[in-house]
Amino acid sequence: MSGSGACAAGFGLVPTDTTEDVRARGAGVSTQVAVLPVGSFEQHGPFLPLATDTLVACAVAREIAAAYPVHLLPPLTVSCSHEHAAWPGTVSISAVTLHAVVRDIADSLRRSGVEALVVVNGHGGNYVLGNVVQEASARGERMALFPAAEDWETACERAGVLTSLLTDMHAGEIETSILLHAHPEFVRPGHESADFTADDRRHLLTVGMSAYTESGVIGRPSLGSAEKGKELLASLAESFGSYFALLTPDDGATPVRG
User: Fold this and answer.
1) Could you read off the pLDDT of 130-164 as tens digits, one per residue?
2) Which of 5, 12, 106, 222 sits at a 20 to 30 Å CA gap from 45?
């Protein structure tokens, strides 16, 4: 195994691999694994960019690519953000479209010899991604969705995140921390005083986010820090190991870095 994945992981949102990089990486494993970051383009309060979920998904994917011999793909930057439609700038596609795009990508990868796909989801509203993976697995295809809630819980414990996953719903401690670490230049002033909680959101799918928050924030961004962001990403990269092993049972592969 080589560190070509780590090289590709170091250049922003778009991987810089050549086709020869992909060929060389694939020569060292019996099962090639691609990683697809899926974000969104939706409001994240007045201090985080519309592309926050994409930036988070890419940060997680880059950590994975630095540690494992995977084929890092460019992100899907628009997804299912319908619950945020009340805020200017938010853009959505239908769940049917997202389902079709991910399935088409997986089909295309298999035709080029990449048998397994991990979808790294950065937006909680992309419920359909679970169905995509569920259906693919039933067809005998190798696909996984990452991170699971348990992976986030482990990461939050390691990083010292104080807000629960229920409370830290949107533009809160987790997302602010990851951006403060990975893209501090995109975090604007104001997160220090933007905390707002609304744990009972049972009608969210019916009435949307605007029924629960005026600012667009649900969580405690004031608790965010770059150090927490660094630890969150490191923990998620470690948690990815079980997914990689599940998708490559015959490789006996180990991470590029410990």
Assistant:
1) 999 999 999 999 999 999 999 999 999 999 999 99
2) 12
User: Across residues 102-126, what is the average pLDDT?
Assistant: 97
Report yes or no: 177 and 253 within 8 Å, Cβ to Cβ. Answer: no
CB contact at 8 A, 250 and 202? no
How many Cα neighbours within 13 Å face the side chain of 145? 22
pLDDT at 29: 87
Q: Is the pTM of this model over 0.90?
A: yes
Q: Write the single-letter amino acid at 159.
A: A
pLDDT over 90 at 255, yes or no: no
What is the per-residue DSSP string for the chain? --SHHHHHTTSSSS----HHHHHHHHHT-SS-EEEEEE--B--BTBTB-TTHHHHHHHHHHHHHHHHS--EEPPPB--B--GGGTTSTT-BB--HHHHHHHHHHHHHHHHHTT--EEEEEE--TT-THHHHHHHHHHHTT-EEEEE--HHHHHHHHHHHT--S-TTT--BSSHHHHHHHHHH-GGGPPTTGGG--B-----TTHHHH-GGGT-SSS-BB-GGG--HHHHHHHHHHHHHHHHHHHHHH-TTT----S--
Cα–Cα nearest to 172, from 155, 150, 194, 152: 194
Of the candidates 54, 58, 57, the one whose C-alpha atom is nearest the C-alpha of residue 78 is 54
Is 190 exposed, middle or buried (CB count within 10 Å of its CB: 0-12, 13-18, 19+)?
middle
